[in-house]
Specification:
Largest sheet: 12 strands, antiparallel, barrel
Number of helices: 1
Structural class: mainly beta
Strand order of the largest sheet: 1-2-3-4-5-8-9-10-11-12-13-14
Strand content: over 45%
Shape: globular
Distance between the termini: 6 Å
Length: about 230
């Protein structure tokens, strides 16, 4: 861990993994690997994340997903801030209307927000963003689609006793003449030692406005190395 910290210098982060191999009525192999990096300045914060999910059942791949996310947040004062969040998602095991549909999704989110709570152990932020979705998919034919959309978000962070922390981010996408889209990520993290941690994460996504990405509901237990 000391070597990793020396390598990244002022950047801090976590290396996480989750794996499961099951053999009963079916052969299942599930794994997930993540890298998280973050750095703070006086009025700015940058976060970078890379993630790979793979699921296989009876030699049939059901999930093969690479996801890259980033965030830059600038604080104007104690209440107001602005952020930019780029997200890239490459799914090589997706299906659309029964057909294979590999896709690449690029989402760019630019928004402003307000700090409702700013205490060290309790933080709450709300705001609105302008989103641009660009999707390249293969079904029913290779094509590229693009659309813009306004969204509302809220973020919470809580520090609890026994080195337990809770983080959550929810986003609502109102869509004209369609079902509103929304997504939410909730995570409970427990530091076992100064360098080892354990996390329980729940993610849900419904009616994503890009028109291609599938809904999901995921619950994972991850172990991490903090540096």
């Amino acid at each position: 861990t000391a070597k990793v910290r020396n390598y990244f210098g002022p950047w801090h982060g976590r290396l996480s993994f989750s794996t499961e191999v099951v053999s009963d009525v079916a052969e299942r192999n599930n794994s997930s690997y993540e890298v998280h990096l973050a750095r703070k300045w006086k009025a700015d914060e940058v976060q970078l994340n890379a993630r790979y999910d793979f699921n296989e059942t009876n030699d049939v791949v059901t999930t093969d997903l690479v996801k890259l996310t980033g965030q830059w947040r600038h604080e104007f004062n104690k209440q107001l801030f602005a952020h930019y969040r780029p997200t890239s998602e490459w799914n090589r095991a997706s299906r659309y209307r029964g057909l294979p549909n590999d896709y690449v999704l690029l989402q760019q989110e630019v928004g402003v927000g307000y700090h409702v709570l700013t205490k060290p152990s309790r933080k709450l932020r709300v705001g609105v963003s302008q989103n641009l979705f660009d999707t390249w998919n293969t079904a029913p034919g290779a094509e590229h689609t693009s659309r813009g959309l306004v969204s509302a978000f809220e973020e919470t962070e809580f520090a609890l006793p026994w080195r337990i922390s809770i983080s959550q981010r929810g986003v609502w996408y109102p869509v004209h003449r369609q079902k509103d889209g929304w997504e939410n990520r909730f995570e409970v993290n427990k530091k076992l030692t100064e360098t080892l941690s354990m996390s329980l994460r729940h993610e849900i996504r419904r009616n994503y406005p890009d028109g291609t990405s599938l809904d999901y509901d995921r619950l994972k237990l991850l172990f991490g190395l903090d540096f």
